[in-house]
Structure formats: C-alpha cells, structure tokens
TrEMBL record:
Signal among keywords: yes
Protein name in the entry: Conjugal transfer protein TraF
Species in which this protein is naturally found: Veronia pacifica
Cleavable signal peptide: 1-21
Taxon lineage: Bacteria, Pseudomonadati, Pseudomonadota, Gammaproteobacteria, Vibrionales
This protein's UniProt keywords: Signal
Superkingdom per UniProt: Bacteria
Length: 393
C-alpha cells in the first residue's frame, strides 16, 4: 500500500458535486443519452469503439481533445440532514439522565433516536468524476489515437445496526451502525489503432479497431461509526491499494450505406479485481468488468440518430447488488457544422438506477475549435454534467 491523491478525488466526488454517475464518457455522448458505440467521432472513439476512427472524413488530419470532464451524483434525498438528525438524537440519548429520568423526556428521546436511525436505512450516495484526453491522427492506412482517461467511482453506504432498535432503552455507545465510504480510481493510458478492411465481392468495407492499454487501479475504503461520521468536513486517510495491469478494447463497425453505421464493441476484456486496505477490520473489493455493447446510427450530415444497448451489466463494487446497464437513445441536429443541439434518453435495465434524460449543446466555429456542454437528470437526486474542448484540422 502507498499514498496517492485519491483522497482528494473522493472528497470532491462525494461532497462537492450537486446531487448517477454520468452516462457517457464525454460531453457529446452525454448529451445524446450516452450513445457512442456507432456514433462517436474519431477523436472520442477510444472511449466507446476504436473501429470508428477508421470512418473519419478525408478532410480530417489531426484532432486534439483537451480535456473532456464529466461528473455525476446519485443520492438519497436530504441525506446530510438525515445524518445530522441522527447524530443530534444520538447525543441526546447519550446525555439522558439515567439516574433520575423523566419518563416523558426519556420516551421522546428514545422515539426520536429510533425514528432518525430508521430513516437512514437503505440510504447512500454514488458519485463519479471523469477526465479524458486524446490525440488522434486519422488516415487511410492505419488511424491512430493516443488517449488517457481517469475515472473515479465512489460510494457512501449507511449500514444500520438493528439490535439497539429492539431495546426499550437503547445504549448509544453500543450501536454499531456504520458509514462506509469506498472508491475506485482507474487511469487508462493507451493507443487505439483502426483500419478499413475490404469485403470481397460486395465492394464494401468493415472497420476494425483495437486499443491496448495500461490501467492503474487504486482502491480505498473508510469504515466508521455513524455516530461519529462527519460527512460535511472530514479528512480522508491517504492509504490505498494500487495495482497496474494490461487491458484491451476491441471494436468493429460496418456501413451498409454511407448514412448508416452498425457497430459492436468489447471494452476491458480482461477482468480485474482489487481489495481495498482494511478500515476497522473491513475491506471492499473493487472490480473492472468486461463491457459488451452494440449500436446503430444514422447520420445524413445535419441529423444524427443513435441507439446503443449495453449487453452486460457494470458494477465497480463487488458488494453492490445492482450495477448499471442501459438502452440508450440519442439525437443531434447540426447547423452547418458550427453549432449542435443534442438530446437523449437512457433506459435503465437494472433496478438500482433510474432512467435518464439528457440535453447538450455544441459550438464548433470554422469546424476547428469545439466546445461541448451536456447535462443529465433522472430526478432531483440524480444529476450529471459534462464539458469538453477539442481542436480538429
């Protein structure tokens, strides 16, 4: 184990964002419901499907993404207020005068303590932060994209101890309700290569791409009594478990006609697991699971429509019952290559996440400098935002 800067990332991810990790790895995709398997451009293709790099226009010679930034949070409504209410009720229970108790006061304090503790059952928070960079050189021989991406997935879970709830007079010092903060940070550094392969007899091509990459994975956990957990202002220990591994992404795409693309991608083909350091004798196992996805897109120059379907479920934490898996819909209106309006919808295929709606805007004066913004919302407690800058020639 060694020290890293993951503590800062976790504290930003959980406690500084507005209140679902974002669906989609860049702002353009996020505005279109997270679609990208068949609709990403050659600059962001490594995040979704490396084969799409081979489908760039002949006018594209160089691209630079610097950077793409995204963040999202999914949490229990009024979670901080509920934690504060319980901690206040817990202090009142600790200060109860047991030598000469007032029966009415005792009853009121005990009922308030039990009610505030029960209100925290099944409560928690999920947060994600992502930063991506890419340098692309498309060409007809072999398209090349050197990329880097860092993602932080973090969660806060409140594990309620029900033993004291059954006691007529609970002992606050014996309550073992816990607050567990766990986080995984993954940094990918790799190169994507793509090429068009001619299909004999039908005068068409299929695009193939692959991305060998190095992954650095860091895992962290904090396990603390809920009664003393300071969710508004606390210092995280910097001890993490770290490992470095090799991984691989693959992709294929096919255009039966110039306007239509059908695609399939397989990312993180080599599954990874890592156990966090112990905190009060407990650990959390984080994981990277292979992701399979299929998509189709229609693009006539001014209108782009895309559909993606996740074929596998993704879960960063092995202890969590529900992961993320979506069917995604997205659309983009392109005004002469200078401005774009985007919208999308992601339909959750698991019980732990809600459907998401998205909107996005893009500005690309002269078709060279690009600036994109996106926002996603499921309800008032599930929000994501993204922004990116790009330069293409």
């Amino acid at each position: 184990m060694k020290k890293t800067h993951i503590a800062l990332a976790v504290s930003l991810g959980i406690f500084s964002l507005p209140s679902s990790a974002l669906v989609g790895g860049d702002a353009r995709s996020a505005g279109m419901g997270g679609t990208g398997v068949a609709s990403a451009n050659y600059l962001t293709a490594p995040f979704y499907n490396p084969a799409l790099m081979a489908q760039s226009n002949d006018s594209n010679d160089f691209g630079l993404l610097l950077p793409s930034v995204s963040a999202g949070v999914k949490g229990t409504e009024n979670l901080q207020d509920k934690i504060d209410d319980f901690q206040g009720a817990n202090k009142a229970l600790e200060n109860l005068n047991l030598n000469n108790p007032d029966p009415e006061v005792t009853k009121r304090v005990v009922e308030n303590w039990k009610t505030s503790l029960k209100a925290l059952d099944n409560s928690g928070l999920d947060a994600g932060v992502g930063v991506g960079f890419a340098v692309a050189v498309p060409n007809s021989l072999i398209a090349v994209n050197v990329f880097s991406k860092t993602d932080v997935d973090s969660m806060l879970r409140l594990n309620i101890d029900g033993k004291q709830l059954d006691q007529p007079l609970p002992d606050a010092d014996k309550d073992e309700s816990r607050a567990v903060v766990a986080a995984m940070m993954v940094t990918d550094v790799g190169v994507s290569l793509a090429r068009n392969i001619d299909v004999p007899y039908i005068n068409q091509t299929i695009s193939f791409g692959f991305s060998p990459k190095i992954q650095k994975i860091s895992a962290y956990q904090l396990n603390e009594r809920l009664a003393s957990f300071d969710n508004g202002n606390f210092e995280l220990p910097t001890q993490t478990t770290d490992t470095t591994a090799f991984n691989l992404d693959l992709g294929v795409s096919y255009q039966p006609v110039p306007e239509v693309t059908a695609a399939f991608s397989a990312t993180n083909l080599i599954a990874q697991e890592l156990e966090s350091p112990k905190s009060n004798g407990q650990t959390t196992v984080v994981q990277i699971e292979p992701r399979l996805a299929a998509g189709v897109a229609y693009d006539n120059g001014w209108f782009l429509g895309a559909v993606d379907v996740d074929l596998t479920e993704q879960n960063s934490f092995k202890t969590e019952a529900d992961g993320k898996q979506y069917a995604r819909l997205g659309a983009e209106l392109n005004a002469w290559g200078w401005a774009q309006v985007r919208a999308g919808y992601a339909i959750s295929m698991t019980d732990g996440y809600e459907d998401l709606a998205s909107i996005g805007l893009g500005f690309s004066p002269f078709g060279t400098l690009g600036f994109d913004l996106a926002a996603q919302v499921a309800d008032q407690n599930e929000i994501g935002v993204a922004a990116e800058f790009s330069l293409t020639f």
